[in-house]
Amino acid sequence: MGIVTPLGDPVFHFWLTRSVARSIDVNLSDAMNAGQIDPQGYVEMVTLCRQCRFVSQCEQWLAVNGAGAESAPDMCVNAGKLNALKAPGRATEKKDADHGNF
Fold first, then answer.
1. pLDDT at res. 3
2. Buried-most residue among 8, 20, 27, 92 (CB within 10 A)?
3. Which pTM does this prediction carry?
4. Which sign does the torsion angle of CA 87, 89, 93, 96 carry?
């Protein structure tokens, strides 16, 4: 039998993933709507987060950086994907398009 990795609470890790994304100005719903990530990719990100052993460090990072950071923390299992979604222009395209549309 292989090693069993316990998974964290799906709801908690859904919000943790979204919170780290938001802290670097990435809106995962907008990324899905823009085709930058598909629903399965989103599920995979949350599942990876559920397996992460750095949850308390992530919560501490969010406490300090939740209002804005340049990139996801290095220990984040989704850092590569989140930072790629933040690539120049991606995170602000929808914001810019929404200005004036009330």
1. 77
2. 20
3. 0.80
4. positive
